[in-house]
């Protein structure tokens, strides 16, 4: 988790102070899933409109093996809520954060940073 936090900080600062490098958009999040020790299922947390298994690390306390995580709201291509990885099109940061003990998890599955704030493609409606 410490490596993930360090890489996320590098991503946040990538391209800053560059005069000629133009990035399509700023990326500051490496989204991930946590796998529970029991049943090896994805850990989910509740926010105002449902459950989400998608998170962003905000801070880490190595001495206690705890982390502050921001919940990410998942949406499918149509912009509707989904918590299914196979239907996922975009993730949006929420204002909700939780604290977790990382010893309760057996794995971290990182996802592509491009999923965060991804805009849906233009879709023409046929009449």
What does it look like?
- This protein is mainly beta and 127 residues long.
- It is 9% helix and 36% strand.
- The chain has 1 helix and 7 strands; from the N terminus they run H-E-E-E-E-E-E-E.
- The chain has one helix at 2-13, and strands spanning 32-36, 45-47, 50-52, 55-61, 66-75, 90-101, 105-110.
- A 3-stranded antiparallel β-sheet has the order 4-5-6. The protein has a two-stranded antiparallel sheet with strand order 1-7. A two-stranded antiparallel ribbon has the order 2-3.
- The longest helix is centred in the N-terminal third of the chain and has 12 residues, at 2-13.
- The protein is globular.
- The relative contact order is 0.23.
- The model has no long low-confidence stretch (mean pLDDT 85).
Question: Which short descriptors sum up this protein?
Answer:
127 residues, mainly beta, three-stranded antiparallel sheet, 1 helix, 36% strand, globular
Compact summary:
With 127 residues, the protein is mainly beta. 9% of the residues lie in helices and 36% in strands. The protein starts with a helix and ends in a 17-residue tail after the last strand.
H/E topology pattern: HEEEEEEE
Report on the biggest sheet. Answer: 3 strands, antiparallel
Taking strands numbered 1, 2, ... along the chain, how are they ordered across the largest sheet? 4-5-6
Overall outline: globular
Specify the structural class.
mainly beta
């Amino acid at each position: 988790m410490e490596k993930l936090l360090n890489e996320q900080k590098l991503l946040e600062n990538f391209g800053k102070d560059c005069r000629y490098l133009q990035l399509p958009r700023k990326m500051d999040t490496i989204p991930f899933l946590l796998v529970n020790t029991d049943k090896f299922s994805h850990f989910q947390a509740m926010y105002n409109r449902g459950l989400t298994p998608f998170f962003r690390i905000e801070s880490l306390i190595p001495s206690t093996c705890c982390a502050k995580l921001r919940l990410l709201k998942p949406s499918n291509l149509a912009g509707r809520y989904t918590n299914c990885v196979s239907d996922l099109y975009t993730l949006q940061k929420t204002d909700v954060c939780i604290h977790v003990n990382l010893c309760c998890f057996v794995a971290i599955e990182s996802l592509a940073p491009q999923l965060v704030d991804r805009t849906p493609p233009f879709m023409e409606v046929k009449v």
